[in-house]
Amino acid sequence: MCGIVGGISKKNITPVLINGLKKLEYRGYDSAGIVTLCKNNKLNRARAVGKVVNLEKRIKDKKTPMDGTIGIAHTRWATHGEPSSRNAHPHICNHSVSVVHNGIIENFLELKATQEADGYIFTSDTDTEVIGHAIHQYLQDSESLLEATQKAILTFKGAYGIGVISPKDPGHIIATRSGSPLVIGISNKGNFIASDQMALLDITKDFIYLLEGDIADITLDSVTIYDKDGNQVEREIKTSKLKSGQVSKRGYDHYMLKEIFEQPQAIRDTLESRITKDSVLLSAFGYKAEDIFKNTKHIQIIACGTSYNAGLVGKYWLEDIAKISTHIEVASEYRYRNPIILDNTLFITISQSGETADTLEALKALKKRSKGKNIHTLTICNSAESSLTRESELTFLTHAGPEIGVASTKAFTTQLVSLALLSVVMGRCHKQVSKQQEAKIVDGLNRLPGLIKQTLKQEDQIKELAKTFKDKFNALFIGRGTMHAIAMEGALKLKEISYIHAEAFPAGELKHGPIALIDKDTPVIAIAPNDRLLDKLKSNLQEVNSRGSQMIVFEDEAAKITPMKGMTIVPTTTDLGRITAPIIFTIPLQLLSYHVALIKGTNIDQPRNLAKSVTVE
Ligand code: F6R
User: Fold this and answer.
1) What is the CATH class of 249-456?
2) How many Cβ atoms from other residues are within 10 Å of residue 511's Cβ?
3) Which among 223, 227, 230, 226 is positioned nearest to 206, based on CA atoms?
4) What is the pLDDT of residues 270-324, one digit of tens each?
5) Protein residue with least CA distance to atom 3, ligand 1
6) 185 against 29, higher pLDDT
7) What is 3-246's CATH superfamily?
8) From the CA of 465, how far away is ligand 1's center (Å)?
């Protein structure tokens, strides 16, 4: 989704901003732009539709060099207004205020009407322009850009991360956030801002993470922060453990493929220091976890997309292993409902980024609604310094490492591992898990990296199978129990990167409607673990087969599916348990969608219309 980079340095800021924008490309965008305050104290702007390389060309072609030492830049993912140069950020008001903005100003139509009446001219269809105009208006009777911005943000409703510069107050960048992330990078080369620390890792590892409502006045050698009430505050400088090299493809053609192959290590990292040889450490969930888990009577999971699919598997495990009633809902629905909130509910949010607006707002809304009730919150998240970790009482980090491919892979499997660990400790707190059961689950988790490595060896076979999808427009995924959730994840992966319409159904539900979709042009992908529902699944496969569909069945070797006409059986490793099976069956589905997308020639790491971190509603 949209990305912000800005900075003030001793040297020309343009290369830093362009490099930062490139580091943010993975988040998804459709145009990019930059403004620097040049040596002549004038704002100099370049904008381009498409990739950052197009912007670089624009900069080279410019008559006035972009030679300023202070500037702001942006990658835009269109919300209000089509992707075009005129809608790309930064926006400039009356040659004197330039802004970049992530988020949505919800009352922009109202503000626009007033500003138009005051004579302001709008040159784009974006909501962002009202920010520049508002700051410009307040600048007329303010002593500084900081003061004008402080006054302006009081008029905004919605979510924002904003960077502002002005020739009227040169030498300052003002940065503020509410609902959208923004970090300040501190270095002896200058001070910088970004919506994602990834953009600045080549320059610094030292970051200040602005809190909700904070506003920062940044100069070459100082950073002064005020909280939402205008009080000057100190915010800790934290050193990031991320390495800039982690954000490279390391020889793979795509980030997605690299991340699929990183899963054995990612899972090892998730397990590290969280288990002993035969048990799960409760302390891994934080020192308050024992009390909270012992008193938990209900669980409500809230998440979006792939993280929601992980949560669905978690629901099965939490009810099966810990015997605690567990509900799950997509965050975009939960946040606007009036759900009944019961005492002693543990709310679990799951998120790779920790910044998904729907999940974050759902969490904030439920906290407000449950005032006076005894509820607790836990986030399972891949980003330590994220809005979700700040909003949650307990945090469990997935330790997947940076995930750059828009289609989530290693974040998903590490979320599953985290949910498995949670199910065990929750079960132990409720005396539902014996020592032997726990040791068996831990053993399964420990075997996962090896099992995944083995499964990854099937890549060549899956590459061949992918050819089946060359001219297909639809596909169905089926599974039962936790495999229904895995089928959903398989369908989501296929649709988002290959643009093939794919749906997933519980196999037993086919006969209630979806079976009407089956024809020879609609491949059916089935997941067949060797579990207690195997015979039921076998009947479902017969039902599909007798309707002439092409079928691909990923089976546990021990499932011994009877070969049928038009059916390709891909045996995976055998002896999978209720925890290991969903994780292992995810791998061939990831590889399948990757290779179908490769054949289709889509932009695998940045599929059309999608963003890595969805920070708007
Ligand atoms: C799909 C995908 C998305 C995300 C969803 C939630 O591959 O990545 O569906 O899972 O946007 O994102 P997070 O997990 O960051 O909250």
Assistant:
1) alpha beta
2) 12
3) 223
4) 999 899 989 999 999 998 999 999 999 999 999 999 999 999 999 999 999 999 9
5) 305
6) 185
7) Aminohydrolase, N-terminal nucleophile (Ntn) domain (3.60.20.10)
8) 26
